[in-house]
């Protein structure tokens, strides 16, 4: 990594509290960062309470999954993921008028290649109003990349970031109508609009250090975060919630069509209803 890279330590605690003893649960955690060109994972581990044997694999989208079963009776389930990651600044950005053209994105080979990332999903589907917004933005920009940046700007201006305004099941249409949401909703809106234009787009989950001027060694409350990537000859990443390219403050965990492909923790269990879920993310800049 270069001198301008950051070294981040991330700790993500999450889990469930049940209304009574649960006999068994079967779970998957997607909380481990990926090794890739803009980040290097120096160490990563996932710990489970009650203790359980875990095994890891990469899912269809390339996300690292830690799977585990708990067969002892339990009333709470706690998962703690810890990782140390080196990250790079954005760099190598595409100029607004560069990248693939609309005609190049419409070539059958390209459409076939990214078919799954051009289709709507339950959380990214658009209504008539949003479809018209997508058509208008496309018509105003001769290059798909410029249209994508304009889409990020529009959604950020129109949808206020309000924690608690939506839930994990909220779709793009609802967030747009109420003009409030969180990073998940803003990313779903951008992804849905880009796909409606014919631009392959995917949802990215990960972590964000909240401060551009982070003090070394100071542990701060971080965020499970979401942003987007679109393909215009190559993939490019952007954080529409903050209006910035993805850089040294971002840590990638997984990618998919929408949130449903990359939830941090999901599973099934035998027992009384889930009475609550807690989430705590701490991020420390080490260098």
TrEMBL record:
User: Record's Pfam families?
Assistant: Bact_transglu_N (PF08379), Transglut_core (PF01841)
Q: What is the top-level taxon of the source organism?
A: Bacteria
User: Coiled coil: which residue ranges?
Assistant: none
Which ranges carry the Transglutaminase-like domain?
Answer: 175-242
The protein's matches in PANTHER family, at most eight in alphabetical order, are given as: BLR5614 PROTEIN-RELATED, SLL1049 PROTEIN
Protein name (database record): Transglutaminase-like domain-containing protein
> Which source organism?
Phytohabitans flavus
């Amino acid at each position: 990594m270069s001198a301008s890279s950051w070294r981040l330590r991330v700790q993500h605690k999450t889990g469930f509290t049940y209304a009574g003893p649960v006999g068994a649960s079967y779970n998957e955690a997607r909380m481990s960062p990926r090794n890739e060109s803009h980040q290097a994972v120096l160490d990563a581990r996932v710990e489970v309470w009650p203790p359980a044997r875990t095994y890891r694999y990469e899912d269809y989208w390339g996300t690292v999954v830690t799977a585990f079963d708990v067969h002892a009776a339990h009333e709470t389930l706690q998962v703690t993921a810890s990782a140390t990651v080196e990250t790079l600044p954005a760099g190598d950005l595409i100029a607004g008028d560069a990248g693939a053209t609309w005609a190049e994105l419409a070539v059958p080979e390209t459409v076939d290649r990214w078919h799954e990332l051009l289709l709507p999903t339950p959380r990214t589907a658009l209504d008539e109003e949003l479809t018209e917004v997508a058509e208008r933005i496309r018509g105003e920009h001769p290059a798909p990349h410029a249209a994508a940046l304009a889409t990020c700007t529009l959604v950020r201006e129109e949808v206020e970031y309000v924690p608690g305004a939506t839930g994990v099941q909220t779709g793009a249409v609802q967030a747009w109508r109420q003009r409030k949401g969180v990073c998940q909703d803003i990313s779903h809106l951008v992804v849905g609009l880009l796909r409606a234009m014919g631009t392959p787009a995917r949802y990215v989950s990960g972590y964000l250090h909240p401060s551009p001027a982070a003090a070394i060694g100071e542990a701060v409350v971080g965020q499970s975060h979401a942003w987007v990537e679109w393909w215009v000859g190559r993939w490019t990443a952007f954080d529409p919630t903050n209006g910035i390219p993805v850089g040294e403050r971002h840590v990638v965990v997984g990618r998919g069509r929408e949130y449903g492909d990359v939830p941090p923790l999901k599973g099934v269990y035998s027992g009384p209803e889930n009475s609550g879920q807690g989430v705590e993310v701490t991020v420390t800049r080490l260098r």
